[in-house]
Every structure is written in structure tokens, then in C-alpha cells.
Amino acid sequence: MDSNNYQWFGKGLEIITTRMSGRKLSYIMIYCMMVCAVSIFIIYPRYVDNFLRTPVKHTRGREHSDGYIHIVTATDAQFFPGIPTLINSVRTSTKLLSHIKFHIVVCGDEGNMTSLREYLQCYGIDKRDENIDIISFEAQRDLDNDTRQIWSDMFSSKRLKSECNYVRAYSYRIFPDVDKIIYLDVDVAVQKPIEDLWNVAVKSRAPLLAVPNNKTYEVGFEADIVTKLFRERYGRQFKKTSFVFNAGVLVIDLDFFRKYEMYKEVEYWMNKFSETLPIKLWRLDCQSLFQVMYHGIWQHLPDKWNGRGLGNKGRSFTVEYIEEAGILHWSASQKPWRNEGKYIELWNSFRPPQCSNHGICQNNTKAIGHGYWQCICDKHYVGNHCQRLLNDGKN
Q1: Residues forming a β-bridge with 71
Q2: Are 186 and 258 in contact (CB under 8 A)?
Q3: pLDDT, tens digit, 9 for 90 and up, residues 344-377
Q4: What is the mean pLDDT of residues 326-335?
Q5: Mind giving me the DSSP string for 301-331?
Q6: What CA–CA distances, in Å, run from 327 to 89, 126, 148, 301, 323?
Q7: What's the alpha-carbon Rg for the chain, to the nearest Å?
Q8: Angle between helices 145-154 and 262-276 (to 10 degrees)
Q9: CA geometry: angle at 189 spanning 183 and 195, to 5°?
Q10: For residue 278, is the peptide bond before it cis, meaning its omega torsion is within 30 degrees of 0?
Q11: Which of 107, 144, 311, 353 could form a disulfide with 334 if both were Cys (CB 3.0 to 4.6 A apart)?
């Protein structure tokens, strides 16, 4: 605006304030305030609370009150092989070992908890370690029948049809005293200090942080239906051309989840998914729920914090890509602990020694209550993980 325009604006304001009656001026002021209020809600819709239509005050970035970096993962028996590598990779790359707290959610019956503890012991990870918290989550026990059925209907891939995939949506109640977590899939290895990611997390005021995927909502979603439902629910636009995120590495603000009762949004979108069947609102399994709930309010993490795709049969990666990644992610079907897996040597470089490299960890499929896993030691070695040489190797 040039000087002539400023003079015009000032002259107009002088006319209004000197010639208008008090009542007319009041009407004009009220009208202007209404226009400003409406403008705020149109121009800044992403700061409008999704549920109450009031401004969202995002949680200020702060270090967790107990001083721990809380890492959450979830597993059932078929994914146990990922846990020792995940734990060891974090511990060998961090400079804040005593500040790392692992929360391992074990899905299925109670026996799986004992089984995992025994499996970890094969790898020299003490089941009594106070910084490893093992929690049971059993859908049959913790969720009602209708909820379980809707979750089940959501899965397009049998490979992903595990109740462990529910954990992201229920972390707020599984960990009632934790305000922020780093959620990691079990098929990752961390090769840069996890506190570097945590430092990004605690400074952020966003309710969720993730690495963008190379797909938009136009792929894998009934975008037109979701757009309509989203607009009705939240009163703001759903941008179907924006990128979704990969849910294998997430920073989740659980305080935000509780404060704004995000569990109600989980229920809302699950019900909508069920109501629209046989048309599926999405075909990207359970993480799609978070894609919709956090649309427009999640924050991008740098790509290095989810070096994904290492388990994809049709992809290969440069040395630079692998070296620069803070977290390596064997997303897709070819897991590195399976015979057909990819980048197995890379994975094994993060894995702690099995039975101290002096035996094998053997599964007893007939065990009941305990004895699911144990080290079968090589000759002359003994101990829970074959850590002791017997009589200096002499009989």
C-alpha cells in the first residue's frame, strides 16, 4: 500500500468517527468484529479444535516429567525376533542409556509375556531389567465384541491382521502416566541416537509427528466419501492431495489424545467404516484411522527418521540412503529374520548375540506356563544364555 492509499484510509476513518452517530458507529464496530471472527475461522481452520470448534492449544514441547524417553512397540509371538534387535540398536546408539524406557506391549494370551521374557533372555536381555516394561494387551479381554469385529474388518492384508496393530489407538490408556511416546514397529533398527529424535519431539507442539509417505489420500482411500464425512465432522476441508505418513515410526502426544478425547474419533471413524461396508473407506489397514484423525494437524519429521522399504522385494537402496538413516525400517513382507528376508546382514549387525554365540535359542511348542524358549548350549558352555565356560572347557 503506497502513501496515497494510507492517506485515503486515514481520511475515511476520520469521516466515519466524526460524522456517524454513536448508535451507527456501534453497529459498524459490531459488524467489523463479526467479519474478523468469521475470517479467523476461515483462514486458520487447522487451529480449530476438531471436536468443540474452539481453538486448539497444542501441548508445549517439554521433556517428559520423569526424565525418560519412552519407547513403545507391540508384538505377538511371530514378531518376537524383532524385539532383541530393536532394544539392542537403541542401546548401542544412544548416549543416554539410563534415560531410555522400553514399553513392550505383548498381544495375545498371558503366556506370550512369559514366552517373550524367556526369548529375550536367550539374547542376554535380563527379564528383570527395570527399564524394560512388558505389558499384556489381549483384544478378547480389553475390547468389546463389536469393536473387535470392526477392527478385523479393516484389515485388507492377512499379513497385518494382528491385534498388535490396535495398540497405537489405545496407548493413551495402556500408559496412563506417560504424556509423550516414540512408537516404533518391531521391524526397525535404530542407528542414530534416539535422543536426537526425542529432542525434535519435545520441541514440537504438534499432536503427532511422522515421516511422510510417497502416497496421497487419493490412493487407498474412498477420498470423496471421506472428504464429505470429514467436513461434516470437523467443519474444515479434507485435502485428499496431501501426503499420508508411514505409521511405523510415530511420536504421539498422549496428553493431547486424552485432553481432546481422541478415542471418540477412533470410535467415530470405526463406526463410519462399518456403516459404509461393503465399500471400504480405506484399504491401508488400521493406520488409515490415524491418517484421517490427524489430517491437517500432524507434523513432518525428516525422512531419515524412517528409512522405510527395506523389506520390499522390488526395491534396493544406495549405501548413502542406509548410512544417513536414523532409523532403518524393514516395512513390507520380507522381514530380515525370515529366510526370504532382505538386507539380512545389515539387520544382524544390530542383533545381540544369540545364546552368547555359544548355542541356539530353541522353542518348545509344547510348553505350558514356562519353558517356551531356552538356550541349547554348545559343548562346554552353560548358563541361561550360554554365557559361562564350564571348567575352562575341560570335562
Answers
A1: 102, 182
A2: no
A3: 999 999 999 999 999 999 999 888 889 999 999 9
A4: 94
A5: PPGGG-B--TT-TT----HHHHHH-SEEE--
A6: 9, 24, 32, 12, 10
A7: 26
A8: 70
A9: 60
A10: yes
A11: 311
